[in-house]
Amino acid sequence: MAQVKRIRRNVSGIILLDKPLGFTSNAALQKVRWLLNAEKAGHTGSLDPLATGVLPLCFGEATKFSQYLLDSDKGYETVMQLGQTTNTGDAEGEVLRTREVTVGRAELEAALPGFRGPISQIPPMYSALKRDGQPLYKLARAGEVVEREARSVTISRLELLECEGTRARLSVGCSKGTYIRTLVEDIGEVLGCGAYVAELRRTQAGPFALAQTVTLEELEQAHAEGGNEALDRFLMPSDSGLQDWPMVSLSEHSAFYWLHGQAVRAPDAPQFGMVRVQDHNARFIGIGEVSEDGRIAPRRLIRSE
Protein backbone atom coordinates (compact mmCIF):
# COMPACT_ATOMS: atom_id res chain seq x y z
CA MET A 1 0.00 0.00 0.00
CA ALA A 2 1.44 3.36 -1.04
CA GLN A 3 2.29 5.76 1.76
CA VAL A 4 0.26 8.97 1.73
CA LYS A 5 2.53 12.02 1.62
CA ARG A 6 1.91 14.44 4.46
CA ILE A 7 0.80 17.86 3.22
CA ARG A 8 2.56 20.45 5.31
CA ARG A 9 1.08 23.80 6.26
CA ASN A 10 2.37 27.14 5.00
CA VAL A 11 2.72 28.93 8.33
CA SER A 12 5.03 31.82 9.18
CA GLY A 13 6.41 33.20 12.42
CA ILE A 14 8.77 32.51 15.31
CA ILE A 15 8.29 30.12 18.21
CA LEU A 16 10.57 30.81 21.17
CA LEU A 17 11.40 27.40 22.56
CA ASP A 18 12.94 26.70 25.94
CA LYS A 19 15.17 23.96 24.52
CA PRO A 20 15.14 20.91 26.77
CA LEU A 21 18.23 19.17 28.10
CA GLY A 22 19.61 16.40 25.90
CA PHE A 23 18.15 17.63 22.60
CA THR A 24 20.27 18.92 19.74
CA SER A 25 18.96 22.17 18.31
CA ASN A 26 18.01 20.41 15.09
CA ALA A 27 16.17 17.62 16.93
CA ALA A 28 14.19 20.24 18.85
CA LEU A 29 13.42 22.10 15.62
CA GLN A 30 12.23 18.97 13.82
CA LYS A 31 10.01 17.99 16.77
CA VAL A 32 8.30 21.39 16.85
CA ARG A 33 8.07 21.45 13.06
CA TRP A 34 6.25 18.09 13.19
CA LEU A 35 3.86 19.34 15.87
CA LEU A 36 3.16 22.49 13.86
CA ASN A 37 3.17 20.55 10.56
CA ALA A 38 5.11 23.44 9.04
CA GLU A 39 6.36 23.40 5.46
CA LYS A 40 9.56 25.38 6.05
CA ALA A 41 11.62 25.71 9.23
CA GLY A 42 15.03 26.74 10.57
CA HIS A 43 16.70 27.63 13.87
CA THR A 44 18.95 30.55 14.70
CA GLY A 45 22.18 29.04 15.95
CA SER A 46 22.89 25.79 17.73
CA LEU A 47 22.77 25.06 21.44
CA ASP A 48 24.71 22.04 22.66
CA PRO A 49 22.62 19.06 23.90
CA LEU A 50 23.89 19.92 27.40
CA ALA A 51 22.47 23.46 27.09
CA THR A 52 18.89 24.58 27.68
CA GLY A 53 17.06 27.85 27.17
CA VAL A 54 16.14 30.38 24.51
CA LEU A 55 16.09 28.89 21.01
CA PRO A 56 14.16 30.94 18.41
CA LEU A 57 12.63 28.61 15.80
CA CYS A 58 11.70 30.26 12.50
CA PHE A 59 8.94 29.02 10.22
CA GLY A 60 7.89 30.00 6.71
CA GLU A 61 8.67 33.62 5.84
CA ALA A 62 10.46 34.15 9.16
CA THR A 63 13.33 31.92 7.96
CA LYS A 64 14.38 34.78 5.67
CA PHE A 65 15.46 36.79 8.73
CA SER A 66 17.07 34.05 10.83
CA GLN A 67 20.58 35.27 9.96
CA TYR A 68 19.98 38.52 11.81
CA LEU A 69 19.07 36.60 14.97
CA LEU A 70 22.12 34.40 14.47
CA ASP A 71 24.28 37.55 14.46
CA SER A 72 22.69 39.00 17.62
CA ASP A 73 24.13 39.17 21.14
CA LYS A 74 23.36 36.34 23.57
CA GLY A 75 22.95 35.93 27.32
CA TYR A 76 23.76 32.84 29.43
CA GLU A 77 23.93 31.47 32.93
CA THR A 78 26.56 28.81 33.38
CA VAL A 79 27.82 26.66 36.23
CA MET A 80 31.59 26.17 36.34
CA GLN A 81 32.98 22.97 37.79
CA LEU A 82 36.36 23.92 39.22
CA GLY A 83 39.25 21.50 39.62
CA GLN A 84 38.84 19.45 36.46
CA THR A 85 39.15 19.82 32.70
CA THR A 86 37.50 17.62 30.06
CA ASN A 87 38.20 16.97 26.39
CA THR A 88 34.94 18.69 25.37
CA GLY A 89 35.04 21.56 27.86
CA ASP A 90 31.75 20.43 29.41
CA ALA A 91 30.23 17.68 31.54
CA GLU A 92 29.73 15.37 28.55
CA GLY A 93 33.46 14.87 27.99
CA GLU A 94 36.14 12.67 29.51
CA VAL A 95 38.12 14.11 32.40
CA LEU A 96 41.64 15.00 31.25
CA ARG A 97 43.09 16.41 34.44
CA THR A 98 42.13 16.88 38.09
CA ARG A 99 43.68 19.59 40.25
CA GLU A 100 43.17 20.80 43.80
CA VAL A 101 40.89 23.81 44.20
CA THR A 102 42.47 26.34 46.55
CA VAL A 103 40.55 29.40 45.33
CA GLY A 104 37.23 30.86 46.41
CA ARG A 105 34.89 33.76 45.74
CA ALA A 106 37.54 36.46 46.20
CA GLU A 107 39.95 34.91 43.69
CA LEU A 108 37.16 34.33 41.19
CA GLU A 109 35.91 37.93 41.51
CA ALA A 110 39.48 39.13 40.95
CA ALA A 111 39.86 37.04 37.78
CA LEU A 112 36.66 38.13 36.03
CA PRO A 113 37.62 41.71 35.01
CA GLY A 114 40.31 40.29 32.72
CA PHE A 115 37.61 38.61 30.65
CA ARG A 116 35.24 41.56 30.27
CA GLY A 117 35.16 43.62 27.08
CA PRO A 118 36.90 42.54 23.83
CA ILE A 119 38.81 39.28 24.32
CA SER A 120 40.45 36.69 22.10
CA GLN A 121 39.24 33.08 22.02
CA ILE A 122 40.53 29.95 20.32
CA PRO A 123 37.46 27.90 19.27
CA PRO A 124 37.30 24.44 20.85
CA MET A 125 37.90 21.28 18.84
CA TYR A 126 34.46 20.07 19.88
CA SER A 127 32.62 22.69 17.83
CA ALA A 128 30.64 22.86 14.59
CA LEU A 129 33.30 24.96 12.83
CA LYS A 130 34.49 23.27 9.67
CA ARG A 131 37.96 22.44 8.35
CA ASP A 132 38.06 21.24 4.72
CA GLY A 133 34.32 20.59 4.87
CA GLN A 134 34.51 18.49 8.05
CA PRO A 135 33.10 19.73 11.38
CA LEU A 136 35.84 20.02 13.99
CA TYR A 137 33.94 17.80 16.42
CA LYS A 138 34.14 14.90 13.95
CA LEU A 139 37.90 15.34 13.70
CA ALA A 140 38.12 15.55 17.48
CA ARG A 141 36.20 12.31 17.90
CA ALA A 142 38.69 10.67 15.55
CA GLY A 143 41.51 11.86 17.81
CA GLU A 144 42.70 14.67 15.54
CA VAL A 145 43.65 18.13 16.76
CA VAL A 146 44.06 20.90 14.18
CA GLU A 147 45.27 24.45 14.56
CA ARG A 148 42.48 26.99 15.05
CA GLU A 149 42.78 30.73 14.59
CA ALA A 150 41.93 32.94 17.55
CA ARG A 151 38.86 35.11 17.08
CA SER A 152 37.82 38.34 18.74
CA VAL A 153 34.58 38.37 20.76
CA THR A 154 33.10 40.79 23.27
CA ILE A 155 31.96 39.93 26.79
CA SER A 156 29.53 42.71 27.75
CA ARG A 157 28.53 41.16 31.08
CA LEU A 158 30.38 38.73 33.36
CA GLU A 159 29.10 38.45 36.92
CA LEU A 160 29.56 35.91 39.70
CA LEU A 161 26.13 34.89 40.99
CA GLU A 162 27.07 32.07 43.37
CA CYS A 163 30.21 30.35 44.58
CA GLU A 164 30.04 27.28 46.78
CA GLY A 165 32.72 24.65 47.13
CA THR A 166 34.07 23.71 43.70
CA ARG A 167 31.14 25.17 41.76
CA ALA A 168 30.46 28.73 40.64
CA ARG A 169 27.52 30.20 38.73
CA LEU A 170 28.18 33.00 36.25
CA SER A 171 25.94 35.37 34.30
CA VAL A 172 27.35 36.15 30.83
CA GLY A 173 26.38 38.60 28.11
CA CYS A 174 28.36 38.19 24.89
CA SER A 175 28.63 38.81 21.17
CA LYS A 176 27.95 36.20 18.50
CA GLY A 177 30.53 33.47 18.13
CA THR A 178 31.45 33.37 21.82
CA TYR A 179 32.13 29.91 23.23
CA ILE A 180 31.10 29.73 26.89
CA ARG A 181 33.06 26.48 27.25
CA THR A 182 36.23 28.28 26.17
CA LEU A 183 35.48 31.21 28.47
CA VAL A 184 35.04 28.87 31.44
CA GLU A 185 38.18 26.89 30.56
CA ASP A 186 40.24 30.09 30.24
CA ILE A 187 38.98 31.39 33.60
CA GLY A 188 39.86 28.02 35.14
CA GLU A 189 43.42 28.27 33.83
CA VAL A 190 43.86 31.78 35.24
CA LEU A 191 42.70 30.41 38.62
CA GLY A 192 45.22 27.59 38.28
CA CYS A 193 42.78 24.76 38.92
CA GLY A 194 41.04 24.28 35.56
CA ALA A 195 37.29 24.24 34.96
CA TYR A 196 34.57 22.96 32.67
CA VAL A 197 30.91 23.81 31.99
CA ALA A 198 28.68 21.70 34.24
CA GLU A 199 25.45 23.49 33.25
CA LEU A 200 24.54 26.01 30.57
CA ARG A 201 21.31 27.91 30.07
CA ARG A 202 20.74 30.56 27.40
CA THR A 203 18.74 33.38 28.94
CA GLN A 204 18.64 35.75 25.97
CA ALA A 205 18.97 35.69 22.18
CA GLY A 206 18.83 39.15 20.62
CA PRO A 207 15.60 40.80 21.83
CA PHE A 208 14.17 37.51 23.15
CA ALA A 209 14.29 36.55 26.84
CA LEU A 210 13.68 33.33 28.74
CA ALA A 211 10.38 34.61 30.15
CA GLN A 212 8.92 34.65 26.61
CA THR A 213 9.68 31.00 25.84
CA VAL A 214 7.38 27.99 25.67
CA THR A 215 8.41 24.48 26.67
CA LEU A 216 8.22 21.40 24.48
CA GLU A 217 5.76 19.89 26.98
CA GLU A 218 3.42 22.88 26.54
CA LEU A 219 3.57 22.53 22.77
CA GLU A 220 2.91 18.78 22.96
CA GLN A 221 -0.06 19.34 25.25
CA ALA A 222 -1.52 21.98 22.91
CA HIS A 223 -1.08 19.58 19.98
CA ALA A 224 -2.77 16.74 21.88
CA GLU A 225 -5.74 18.96 22.69
CA GLY A 226 -6.17 20.80 19.38
CA GLY A 227 -3.88 19.44 16.68
CA ASN A 228 -1.43 21.40 14.50
CA GLU A 229 -3.50 24.60 14.46
CA ALA A 230 -3.44 24.82 18.26
CA LEU A 231 0.25 25.74 18.07
CA ASP A 232 -0.43 28.78 15.91
CA ARG A 233 -1.11 30.88 19.01
CA PHE A 234 2.54 30.48 20.00
CA LEU A 235 3.78 31.98 16.71
CA MET A 236 5.23 35.48 17.00
CA PRO A 237 5.34 37.79 13.93
CA SER A 238 8.13 37.16 11.44
CA ASP A 239 9.80 40.50 12.24
CA SER A 240 9.77 39.95 16.03
CA GLY A 241 13.54 39.63 16.10
CA LEU A 242 13.98 42.98 14.34
CA GLN A 243 11.96 45.19 16.67
CA ASP A 244 14.88 47.55 17.28
CA TRP A 245 15.08 48.36 13.55
CA PRO A 246 13.32 51.50 12.25
CA MET A 247 9.96 50.86 10.57
CA VAL A 248 9.23 52.61 7.26
CA SER A 249 5.73 52.87 5.80
CA LEU A 250 5.13 52.80 2.04
CA SER A 251 2.15 53.99 0.06
CA GLU A 252 0.17 51.43 -1.92
CA HIS A 253 1.88 52.60 -5.11
CA SER A 254 5.41 52.44 -3.65
CA ALA A 255 4.80 49.07 -1.97
CA PHE A 256 3.78 47.56 -5.31
CA TYR A 257 7.06 48.55 -6.98
CA TRP A 258 9.15 47.71 -3.89
CA LEU A 259 7.70 44.19 -3.79
CA HIS A 260 8.73 43.84 -7.44
CA GLY A 261 12.36 44.56 -6.59
CA GLN A 262 12.57 48.30 -7.18
CA ALA A 263 14.06 50.84 -4.78
CA VAL A 264 11.58 53.51 -3.69
CA ARG A 265 11.47 56.63 -1.54
CA ALA A 266 9.62 57.02 1.74
CA PRO A 267 9.03 60.28 3.64
CA ASP A 268 9.88 58.82 7.07
CA ALA A 269 13.01 56.88 6.09
CA PRO A 270 16.25 57.31 8.07
CA GLN A 271 19.37 58.54 6.28
CA PHE A 272 21.12 55.16 6.26
CA GLY A 273 21.00 51.56 7.51
CA MET A 274 18.62 48.63 7.48
CA VAL A 275 14.89 49.14 7.99
CA ARG A 276 11.71 47.13 8.37
CA VAL A 277 9.12 47.96 5.74
CA GLN A 278 5.31 47.92 5.97
CA ASP A 279 2.68 48.65 3.35
CA HIS A 280 -0.26 51.06 3.49
CA ASN A 281 -2.23 48.49 5.51
CA ALA A 282 0.54 48.36 8.15
CA ARG A 283 1.46 44.84 7.01
CA PHE A 284 5.13 43.86 7.33
CA ILE A 285 6.42 43.19 3.81
CA GLY A 286 10.17 42.78 4.28
CA ILE A 287 13.42 44.54 5.07
CA GLY A 288 15.36 47.07 3.04
CA GLU A 289 18.51 49.16 3.09
CA VAL A 290 18.62 52.91 2.65
CA SER A 291 20.99 53.74 -0.21
CA GLU A 292 23.12 56.88 -0.65
CA ASP A 293 20.43 58.56 -2.75
CA GLY A 294 17.84 58.09 0.03
CA ARG A 295 15.87 55.34 -1.65
CA ILE A 296 15.03 52.06 0.10
CA ALA A 297 16.39 49.04 -1.73
CA PRO A 298 14.64 45.73 -1.00
CA ARG A 299 16.81 43.06 0.67
CA ARG A 300 14.32 40.40 1.86
CA LEU A 301 10.70 40.38 0.74
CA ILE A 302 7.53 38.93 2.21
CA ARG A 303 4.83 38.51 -0.39
CA SER A 304 2.17 37.05 1.87
CA GLU A 305 1.73 36.08 5.50
TrEMBL record:
Coiled-coil regions listed in the entry: none
Taxonomic placement: Bacteria, Pseudomonadati, Pseudomonadota, Gammaproteobacteria, Pseudomonadales
Biological role stated in the UniProt entry: Responsible for synthesis of pseudouridine from uracil-55 in the psi GC loop of transfer RNAs.
Keyword match tRNA processing: yes
GO molecular function term, any single one: RNA binding
NCBIfam families: TruB
Domain named tRNA pseudouridylate synthase B C-terminal: residues: 181-242
EC nos: 5.4.99.25
Family, as annotated: Belongs to the pseudouridine synthase TruB family. Type 1 subfamily.
BP-aspect Gene Ontology terms: mRNA pseudouridine synthesis; tRNA pseudouridine synthesis
tRNA pseudouridine synthase II TruB subfamily 1 C-terminal domain span: 246-302
CDD domains: PseudoU_synth_EcTruB (cd02573), PUA_TruB_bacterial (cd21152)
Name of the protein this chain belongs to: tRNA pseudouridine synthase B
Transmembrane segments: none
Superkingdom of this protein's organism: Bacteria
InterPro entries (alphabetical): PsdUridine_synth_cat_dom_sf, PsdUridine_synth_N, PUA-like_sf, PUA_sf, tRNA_psdUridine_synth_TruB, tRNA_sdUridine_synth_fam1_C, TruB_C
